[in-house]
Design the sequence.
C-alpha cells in the first residue's frame, strides 16, 4: 500500500507522520510518499524522512499516487479532484462542525476515517488523538496564562513581603482540564475545578485540586463517558456558583464541551467584568462557541482589564511533540487497517474501524454523525 502525507496549510504547523512513523510503516510493508517540506514547520527535515525510507515528492504526486492519504486538517475542496479514485483519507475532519466536507466525502464515495471519532474505549486508547491533543492544549493553556498574568503562580515568602499563590479555576475536568490542573499545581497555584460528571471528583482531588460540586447534574451512562446537556435550572444554579468562584480567580481555563453540541456558556460578561484586572481567561472551547460570553474564536480580547483568549489550536504551537503523538496514534490505528503484508484489510466488524469510519461507498458510516446530520436536515425542513 502507498501511504501519502501532505504538508498542512498555514497556520497549521503539525505533520501527520514523523520520520519515526515512516520507519514503523515500512516494517508493515508500506511505501511512504511525503510531500516536500511536509514536516519542516514541526522541525522534521526532508532528509530525516528519506533516511527513514520515504520518498519525497511534490504535493500533486502525493495526491495522485497514494492509496491512503494521511493529514491533519481536511483537504481543501479544490484539491479533492486531484486524488485518485479509490484513495482513502484519514485525518481530523471535525465532522460535527464541518458538514460540507462530510457531504463532499460522501458524494465522491471516498472512504474516510476521522480520528476524532475513535471510540473512547480502553482498547482504543493508543489511537486516541483527541486525548493526545487535549493533553497538549491543557499544558500550553496554563503556560500561556502564566506568562500573561502580571503575578507569580506560586506563593513566595521573601524579604519584600509574602506573595499569595495564584488562584486558578478550571471548567471541565476532561483530558485538557486534568492536564491543566496538574500543570497549574506544579507551578504552585491553588486550583478549583467544576465538572458535571461526578466521576471526575476523585481524579481532581488526587491531582491536588478542589472539586466544586453542583448538585442535580444530569449524567447519562449511554453517552460513552461524555457530558450531556444540562437543564435550565441546573445551568442557573451552576452559573451562580461559577460566578462566585470566578470573581476570586486570577486565571480561568475553560475546557467544557459536549460532543456534537455548542459548548455550554458558563461565564457571563458580568462575571468577567467583576474579576480582578490583569486576570486571564483561556477558552479552549472557543471553536464550538466558547464557555465565556466574551470569547471570540481565534482572537484575544481585553474586557475590563481581563484578557480573554479564544484559542483551540494550542497543539499546533507545540508542533514537534504534537506531531509525534498524532503520528503514533495514527500508526496504532493503521495497524487495524493494514495486514502484515501491507494490504488493506477493512474489517467493519471491528468497533474501532467502524466507529472511526466517517464515509464509505457514498454512505456516512459513523452513527453519531449520521444521526446529527439527519437531525439537522429535519430541523431545516
Ligand atoms: P470533552 O472535551 O468532551 O469535555 C471536557 C469536559 O467538560 C468533560 O469532562 C465534560 O464533562 C465537561 N463538561 C461538559 N459540560 C459541562 C458543564 N456544563 N459544566 C462543567 N463541565 C462540563 O472531554 P474529553 O476530555 O474529551 O473527555 C470526555 C470523556 O472521555 C471523559 O469521560 C474521559 O474520561 C473519557 N475518556 C476516555 C478515554 C478512554 O477510555 N480511552 C480517553 C480519553 C477520555
Sequence:
Amino acid at each position: 500500500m502507498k501511504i501519502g502525507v501532505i504538508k498542512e496549510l498555514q497556520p497549521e504547523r503539525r505533520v501527520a507522520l514523523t520520520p519515526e512513523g515512516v520507519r514503523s510503516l515500512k516494517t508493515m510493508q508500506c511505501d511512504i510518499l511525503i510531500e516536500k517540506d511536509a514536516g519542516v514547520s514541526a522541525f522534521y527535515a526532508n532528509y530525516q524522512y528519506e533516511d527513514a525510507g520515504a520518498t519525497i515528492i511534490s504535493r500533486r504526486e502525493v495526491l495522485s499516487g497514494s492509496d491512503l492519504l494521511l493529514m491533519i486538517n481536511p483537504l481543501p475542496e479544490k484539491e479533492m479532484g486531484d486524488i485518485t479514485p479509490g484513495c482513502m483519507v484519514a485525518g481530523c475532519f471535525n465532522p460535527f462542525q464541518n458538514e460540507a466536507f462530510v457531504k463532499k466525502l460522501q458524494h465522491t464515495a471516498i472512504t474516510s476515517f476521522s480520528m476524532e471519532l475513535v471510540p473512547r474505549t480502553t482498547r482504543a486508547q493508543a489511537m486516541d488523538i483527541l486525548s493526545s491533543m487535549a493533553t497538549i492544549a491543557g499544558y500550553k493553556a496554563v503556560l500561556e496564562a502564566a506568562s500573561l498574568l502580571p503575578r507569580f503562580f506560586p506563593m513566595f515568602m521573601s524579604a519584600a513581603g509574602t506573595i499569595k499563590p495564584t488562584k486558578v479555576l478550571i471548567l471541565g475536568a476532561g483530558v485538557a482540564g486534568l492536564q491543566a490542573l496538574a500543570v497549574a499545581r506544579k507551578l504552585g497555584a491553588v486550583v478549583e475545578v467544576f465538572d458535571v460528571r461526578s466521576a471526575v471528583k476523585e481524579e481532581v482531588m488526587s491531582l491536588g485540586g478542589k472539586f466544586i460540586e453542583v448538585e442535580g447534574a444530569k449524567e447519562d451512562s449511554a453517552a460513552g463517558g461524555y457530558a450531556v446537556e444540562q437543564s435550565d435550572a441546573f445551568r442557573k444554579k451552576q452559573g451562580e456558583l461559577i460566578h462566585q468562584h470566578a470573581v476570586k480567580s486570577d486565571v480561568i481555563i475553560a475546557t467544557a464541551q459536549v460532543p456534537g453540541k455548542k459548548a455550554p456558556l458558563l461565564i457571563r460578561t458580568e462575571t468577567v467584568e467583576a474579576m480582578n484586572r490583569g486576570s486571564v481567561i483561556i477558552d479552549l472551547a472557543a471553536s464550538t462557541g466558547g464557555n465565556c460570553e466574551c470569547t471570540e474564536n481565534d482572537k484575544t480580547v481585553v474586557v475590563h482589564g481581563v484578557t480573554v483568549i479564544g484559542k483551540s489550536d494550542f497543539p499546533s504551537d507545540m508542533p514537534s511533540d504534537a506531531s509525534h503523538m498524532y503520528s503514533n496514534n495514527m500508526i496504532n490505528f493503521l495497524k487495524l487497517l493494514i495486514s502484515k503484508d501491507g494490504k488493506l484489510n477493512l474489517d467493519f466488524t471491528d468497533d474501532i474501524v467502524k466507529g472511526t469510519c466517517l464515509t464509505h461507498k457514498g454512505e456516512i458510516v459513523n452513527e453519531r454523525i449520521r444521526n446529527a446530520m439527519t437531525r439537522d436536515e429535519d430541523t431545516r425542513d
In short: The chain has two domains: 2-117+319-380, 137-312. The two ends are 43 Å apart (CA to CA).
